[in-house]
Specification:
Layout (H helix, E strand, L loop, with lengths): L1 E7 L8 E7 L6 E10 L2 H7 L16 E8 L11 E4 L2 E3 L5 H4 L11 E2 L19 E5 L3 E3 L6 H4 L5 H11 L7 E5 L3 H12 L3 E6 L5 H7 L3 E4 L3 H6 L4 E6 L8 H4 L2 E9 L10 H5 L4 E4 L5 H14 L5 E5 L3 H10 L5 E5 L5
Parallel strand pairs: 10-11, 10-13, 11-12, 13-14, 14-15, 16-17
Antiparallel strand pairs: 1-2, 3-4, 3-8, 3-17, 4-5, 5-9, 6-7
Helix pairs in contact: 4-5
């Protein structure tokens, strides 16, 4: 076994503790990666608080990270020590089902192995995530990090970015599309950048007009105030796709009314439970969908697109010793737009 250092949970909501953890010895198709930067995601906050039902004792969160290859297994081709890589929310899948064959390993019919809190398919051990200095994973689920991308600002592409990218690709978003983004946070700000780069006309949906300047700075053409009935009435039937990145429970009906014929509302903020009346979908033949990060096909595509268009997250980089501060600020909504941990202080 290999030993590295991590920030580890000791119970729901408890402060994370610096601890030595074990990584497996490299299998033939494995990489060892020195983690340099790891994003702090809202789902990390949920997991560490016990909200998603996984044991928090011993948990190491973190599933969007970049780093450097330090060792490769005997059968690995395409990577060598010193290569920059990016890793996202899944680190294995069955490889045989229809989803895996389609490059949608995130929807593996036998269950994808998540980067933390999952079960290793070979030895049954529980995966420990990217709030650590080293990770060992199958080479198939590591991606070359393009030279054009800053490693700290690119880390959130591996969860927040791909979460917004897949539903845009599924909806065929391109020049002339009308896209709205609800929730201008870690996911939402990347959604604006990506949709604009695809050629869409982008509108930010916000409860207040306070974010109008930020929305336009990111490339949005407009901001719609969702608490203004007149604003909502003017936008009825306007959008082809609404990406709903709001993490708290909320009413979907006002958003559905904004969709054009055959438009799609994709709920990616995971507010746990939502209610919808069927008539809100029937009137206009509208679609309600969701999306869970991405598989190898679209993740590789996203990284190439981001490099071509100069797209990364707007980040604040903190030493990993401030991980509890980062989580507390995320809970309070005091992040603009993603905190990324620098893991070098774990050496």
């Amino acid at each position: 076994m290999r030993t590295t250092t991590a920030w580890q949970g000791s119970g729901p909501g408890a402060a994370l503790q610096r601890a030595a953890i074990e990584r497996r010895d490299l299998r033939a198709d494995d990489l060892a990666v020195r983690i340099d930067h790891c994003g702090v995601c809202h789902s990390d906050l949920h997991a560490l608080s016990g909200a998603i039902g996984k044991p928090t004792e011993g948990m190491v969160a973190g599933h969007e990270f970049t780093g450097t290859v330090t060792a490769v297994g005997a059968a690995v081709t395409g990577f060598e020590p010193g290569d920059r890589v990016a890793v996202g929310t899944i680190v294995d899948s069955c490889g045989d089902c229809a989803m895996c064959a389609a490059g949608q390993e995130n929807y593996c019919l036998r269950g994808a192995t998540s980067t933390y809190g999952g079960k290793d398919r070979v030895d049954g051990s529980i995966t420990l995530g990217g709030y650590s200095r080293e990770y060992v994973l199958r080479a198939k689920f590591a991606y070359p990090l393009p030279a054009a991308l800053d490693p700290a600002a690119a880390a959130p592409l591996m969860c927040a970015g791909i979460t917004m990218w897949e539903p845009m690709r599924a909806a065929g978003i391109g020049a002339g599309s009308r896209v709205a983004i609800a929730g201008l946070g870690g996911l939402g700000h990347l959604g604006v950048k990506l949709a604009v780069a695809l050629g869409a006309e982008v509108t930010v949906l916000s409860r207040t007009p306070d974010k109008a300047g930020d929305a336009r700075a990111l490339g949005a053409a407009d901001l719609l105030v969702t608490t203004d009935d007149a604003d909502l009435a003017r936008a009825t039937g306007r959008f082809d796709l609404i990406l709903d990145a709001i993490p708290a429970p909320h009413d979907l009906a006002p958003l559905l009314r904004l969709l054009a014929l055959d438009g799609t509302l994709s709920v990616v903020g995971y507010p746990r439970e939502v209610q919808v009346q069927l008539m809100h979908l029937t009137y206009g033949r509208k679609n309600l969908s969701s999306s869970g990060t991405g598989g190898t096909k679209h993740t590789a595509e996203l990284l190439g697109f981001a490099a071509e268009h100069g797209i990364t997250a707007d980040v604040e980089v903190l030493p990993s010793a401030k991980v509890d501060e980062a989580l507390a600020r995320l809970k309070q909504g005091d992040v603009r737009y993603r905190i990324v941990l620098d893991l070098s202080d774990l050496d």
